[in-house]
Amino acid sequence: MSLAHLVAHRETGTFGTFEVAEGNVSKNLTPILHFFNATTALVPMNARSLFTTPDEHSAFDAALMGLPAIGVSVQYIETVAKFMDPKARFTDWIKGNLTPASVGLKLTPEELAVPSAYESAKAKFEAMFTPPTPPRKLDGRTLIDVEKLRIIQRSNKPYQLSNGDYTIGIGAAKKLWNDHLNAAWKDREATPTSSMAISSRPYIEAAGNERRVHIYPSYITIGCQTIQRNAIEAVALELGWDM
Does residue 140 fall inside a structural domain? Predict the structure, then answer.
């Protein structure tokens, strides 16, 4: 009697190294094919790692190929023991990772609506009980008048920021703000007397040259130039950069 016959007729017996109990197949006491219900059979993804001969593979293939003829589909899982966990499978369903019909589970229309109702209710709880984002901590000193920085345009060149003798393109300034300064200063009080750098960043291209940026609590240095934090934050506010 073949393994395929034992499986298809849900019989009990042995075939070579396979043990079969009511159609459920094991090898060395490890389940490798388990009827979850009348329409679904579970097969662990590592089932074939237990096989040592071509005949075992051929017999198992024949058993699998015979399942569609009796109206049974195969679902590949990690292990039978892990799959048979009602809490985990319920969580899969709630998250949309398990279709009840795929495992022969019949639910009422009201029950089928539970996942969407759950997500809707969860979103309302998250909206109500998520604390508001506190306002960003700007430099404690008065923000300088952004007009003093002079946003200029020379001929057809892009807009630039000028701070005394130092000029930087707005594009480069915005990238520096978005990539480094905003995160470094977020929720951090400015301490004008501090001389310890928060971080040293890679070189950036500004004014036609590459210069290293050092970020301090209340100012930055770009090469030999120093720019105060309150001046930079004034520009960010004025130009509507993310804060």
Answer: no
Per-residue model confidence (pLDDT) at position 178: 87
Alpha carbon 72 to chain centroid, angstroms: 35
Residue 170 vs residue 86, higher pLDDT: 86
- Whether 20 and 110 map to the same domain: the answer is yes
In a domain, 181, yes or no: yes
Place of tokens 């404690």: 140
pTM above 0.90, yes or no: no
Domain that holds residue 41: 3-125
Task: Summarize the confidence of residues 93-115 as an average pLDDT.
Answer: 90
Regarding whether 115 and 175 lie in a shared domain, the answer is no
pLDDT tens-digit map of 43-58? 999 999 999 999 999 9
* Tally of domains in the chain: 2
